[in-house]
Design brief:
mainly alpha; 68% helix; elongated; Arc Repressor Mutant, subunit A; 0% strand
């Protein structure tokens, strides 16, 4: 006998299917080239199901990003960054984690969709504002970024500036890894983290 879901459970399942379908469709066709009909068809649902969950295309795109940033992988990153490890140990652990995530089977579509959304946001202020809230959430911050070893030039910067530099490294290397992995393999990211922290590329 098939699984029987409550109305709320079915709604949540439909929403997840739409998020997964949207990521795939927008990555393949771009924001301008894809429609909500395309997303609904990919999810095996109706366009009405899209509008019962999302206000429109931009709301759906931001929901995909929000969903991705709250998944277990992001939670693991947050746990690493807020652990009590020494900075050098944390840099090594975070670099290894980054390589593992970027080499994941589902990272290509997410990277493609992220680039599409970021370009779209540069032309649409309301989307830009919401995307920046996701990328730079408000809240109390320590004086030193956890990935900036004490005594390094990076550690001398305010948290917000160091965070912006590290996010730029993250986004830029994700894109280059997708575009030209032979020139920018994921393993360069841990090396870049060490260099930013004033450490030797060959060090621990």
């Amino acid at each position: 006998m098939g699984e029987r879901l409550t109305r709320q459970e079915q709604r949540e399942r439909n929403r997840l299917n739409l998020l997964q379908a949207a990521e795939k469709v927008f990555a393949e066709r771009g924001i301008q080239g894809a429609s909500l009909d395309d997303v609904a068809a990919e999810a095996g649902l109706t366009k009405g199901a899209v509008y019962s969950n999302f206000a429109g295309k931009e709301d759906l795109l931001l929901a995909v990003m929000r969903h991705r940033l709250t998944q277990e992988a992001r939670a693991q990153a947050d746990r690493l960054l807020h652990s009590d490890r020494e900075a050098d140990e944390l840099v090594a652990a975070f670099g290894a984690y980054w390589v593992e995530v970027v080499r994941g089977a589902d990272q290509e579509t997410f990277a493609q969709m992220t680039v599409e959304l970021m370009i779209h946001a540069t032309r649409h202020p309301a989307v830009r504002e919401q995307l920046l809230d996701l990328m730079f959430p408000p809240g109390d911050r320590p004086d030193r970024h956890p990935l900036a070893p004490p005594g390094s030039a990076l550690a001398e910067l305010p948290y917000e500036q160091a965070d912006a530099i590290l996010k730029s490294l993250d986004i830029g290397m994700r894109l280059l890894t997708l575009l030209a992995p032979e020139h920018c393999p994921p393993e360069l990211f841990p090396t870049a983290l060490k260099l930013l922290g004033g450490r030797s590329a060959d060090g621990p």
